[in-house]
């Protein structure tokens, strides 16, 4: 075999081992008991942008939390004419918990989500603040699970991983959800289990108001694309712990086209690469199937065919293990999408090595080496 074929075969076999380790880590995480007490008074902060499929369901879930302490749900739209506004107002009118919507307000920085969070922070009534993306579908125990650890004064911030949930009848939304379930979720679970991830996952961030004030509030993170990562790092610098709660809310995936999926996932990938180039390079081991296919293409024969079989078996074992851990029913059609999803993930990983701009919420941004955002015009198509 050629040198490259051998190299690709080694990467494929190492990736197969990584897949089995990630499967085990995710199953352990999903089997963990959720923090159930104490219940702390909390303000849920939800910046909104657009009325994507799943928004109404997600807001109902936020209001329907089984939380023994008082809580409120505060939402914000930057544009008073945003189509998310009537959805939020309907949720407030029918929700069992107090709610409020902020419409308008000054744009404080390049990261418009963080700008909205700064306005919501000022309006919040409770000592625990829980920032949650609008596309999160949270189970009823989520709020207690992500706020209870803050009763320990050594804990400065609580976050959690999430699962993929297609909320548009689209093959691309389903593929996007598979990317969450079969790539992001088990790999992040493995990183956390090994103590290497040092993660802060912005879909859910819970912290005490006093901790946030020590950091300068959300305003201190206004121009950062990876505001969640920076927030977690800042909390650790205070000498406080960042805890990953085992609760797994759903992430509503609404991609209607390949282009939309590509823009969305490329933004995520470039963010990770910018924050941790070495760790991003290590993600090569999460793509065993493409490496095995390359090895087979360069050196056809029984040895490379065996490598491909091992890689495929390991990835299938991970997919089946993840689906069981998430209590998803067996589905041959879902598993048949694995090769397509794996090749797509590898293509995005490779493309993200090239420098470029990112699209987010209909705007295009240039990024500095330190992750600061500068608006650079509008893309031809609305980003995710």
UniProtKB/TrEMBL annotation:
Gene3D superfamilies: Spore Coat Polysaccharide Biosynthesis Protein SpsA, Chain A (3.90.550.10). It is found in: Membrane. Keywords: Glycosyltransferase, Membrane, Signal, Transferase, Transmembrane, Transmembrane helix. Pathway: Lipid metabolism; sphingolipid metabolism; Sphingolipid metabolism. It is a multi-pass membrane protein. Residues 1-21 form the signal peptide. This is Bacteriohopanetetrol glucosamine biosynthesis glycosyltransferase HpnI. It comes from Sabulicella glaciei. The lineage of its organism: Bacteria, Pseudomonadati, Pseudomonadota, Alphaproteobacteria, Acetobacterales. The gene is hpnI.
């Amino acid at each position: 075999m050629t040198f490259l074929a051998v190299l690709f075969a080694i990467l494929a076999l190492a990736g197969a081992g990584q897949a089995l380790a990630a499967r085990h880590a995710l199953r352990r995480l999903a089997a963990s008991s959720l923090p159930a007490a104490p219940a702390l008074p909390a303000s849920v902060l939800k910046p909104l942008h657009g009325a994507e499929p799943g928004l109404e369901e997600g807001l109902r879930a936020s209001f329907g939390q089984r939380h023994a302490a008082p809580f409120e749900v505060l939402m914000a739209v930057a544009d008073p004419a945003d189509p998310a506004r009537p959805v939020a107002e309907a949720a407030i009118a029918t929700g069992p918990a107090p709610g409020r919507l902020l419409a308008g307000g000054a744009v404080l920085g390049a990261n418009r989500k963080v700008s909205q969070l700064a306005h919501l922070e000022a309006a919040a009534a409770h000592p625990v603040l829980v920032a949650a993306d609008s596309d999160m579908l949270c189970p009823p125990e989520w709020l207690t699970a992500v706020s209870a650890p803050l009763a320990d004064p050594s804990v400065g911030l609580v976050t959690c991983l999430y699962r993929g949930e297609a909320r548009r009848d689209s093959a691309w939304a389903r593929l996007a959800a598979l990317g969450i379930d079969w790539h992001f979720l088990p790999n992040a679970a493995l990183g956390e289990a090994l103590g290497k991830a040092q993660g802060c996952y912005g879909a859910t961030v819970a912290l005490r108001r006093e901790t946030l004030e020590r950091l300068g509030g959300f305003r201190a993170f206004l121009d950062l694309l990876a505001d969640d990562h920076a927030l977690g790092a800042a909390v650790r610098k205070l000498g406080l712990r960042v805890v990953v709660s085992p609760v797994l809310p759903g992430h509503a995936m609404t991609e209607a086209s390949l282009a939309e999926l590509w823009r969305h996932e490329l933004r995520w990938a470039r963010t990770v690469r910018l924050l941790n180039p070495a760790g991003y390079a290590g993600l090569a081991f999460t793509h065993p199937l493409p490496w095995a296919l390359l090895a087979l293409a360069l050196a056809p024969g029984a040895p490379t065919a065996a490598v491909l079989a091992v890689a495929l078996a390991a990835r299938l074992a991970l997919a089946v293990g993840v689906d069981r851990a998430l209590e998803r029913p067996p589905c041959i059609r879902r598993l048949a999408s694995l090769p397509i999803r794996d090749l797509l993930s590898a293509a995005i990983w490779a493309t993200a090595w090239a420098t470029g701009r990112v699209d987010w919420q209909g705007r295009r941004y240039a990024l500095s080496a330190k992750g600061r955002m500068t608006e650079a015009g509008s893309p031809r198509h609305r980003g995710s």
